[in-house]
Design a protein that fits this description.
By secondary structure, this protein is an alpha/beta fold. It contains eight helices and seven strands, in the order E-H-E-H-E-H-E-H-E-H-E-H-H-H-E.
Amino acid sequence: MDLGIKGKTVLVTASSKGIGRAVAEGFAAEGCSVAICSRNKDELLNTAEEIKKKYGMEPVWCVCDLNNIKDIETTIETVTKQLGRIEILVNNCGGPEPGNFQQLSEKNWQAAFEQVLLSAVRLCNFVVPDMILNEWGRIINITSVSVKQPIDNLMLSNSLRTGLIGFAKTLSNEVAKFNITVNSVAPGYTLTNRIYDIAVHKAKQSAKSHEEVLVEMAKEIPINRLASPDEIASVVVFLASKQASYITGNTIQVDGGLVKGLY
C-alpha cells in the first residue's frame, strides 16, 4: 500500500530507542525525510547510523531535552533549516517518575508536566503555523494505555498523559479545517526499557523477580504477550498517511485487548 507520504518531513521526538526509534524507522521505510532527537548523543549517533545503513537515508539528529524550551527551539530550527517545514510531528517522550500519590513531590509533578504535556504544547506551537500555511499536517501523540485504564503506581503518567489527550482533542477541532489531523496512540505493555523499569519497580514492592512481573503482565493481556515497538510504530505511520485523512481527534489503543472498557 502506498501511504502517500514519501518525501514528507517528519520529526519524531525521544527517538533514539524504543517506540520512538521504531516510529522513526517506520517513516524512513516510507521514504520520508526523518529527524530524530533525544537527550543521549551516543544513542542518537548509533540510531542515525543504523537507519542510514538500513534505509539508505541519513536522518537529521539533534540532542534535545524535552523539558527545555531552548533545546526544543534549537531542534525545530535545525530540522527546518536542513529538511524544510515539518509536515509530520510525532510527540513522544519517556515516562515520568513512577510512584503513588504520597511518594511524589511537587518537583516530580512539575517535571512530569513539562516532560509529558508542555513539551507537546511547545512543539505544536512551533509547527502548527507552518502546517496551517501549507494546509496540510499530521500530529500524532504517543501516550499510554493509562489514558484509557489507569495503571497502579503511575500517578504522574495517568494524570499528565490524560491531559495531553484533552489538549489533542481540542487542537484537532481547531485545525481540522486546514487539513491537519491530530491523533494519539496509546500503547499497552510494550517491550521497551520503560516497561523493564516498571517491572523492576513492581518487583521491589512484591518480593518477586522482574522476570516474574513481566510474565504476570503478559497474562493480563488477552493476546498473551507484550507488544513489540514495531507494532506501535505501524499504527503511528498509518495515522500520518493519506488513507487516514478522515481520522482526527481520536485516541487509538494498541494494547492486545488489555483495556476492559468499551470506550
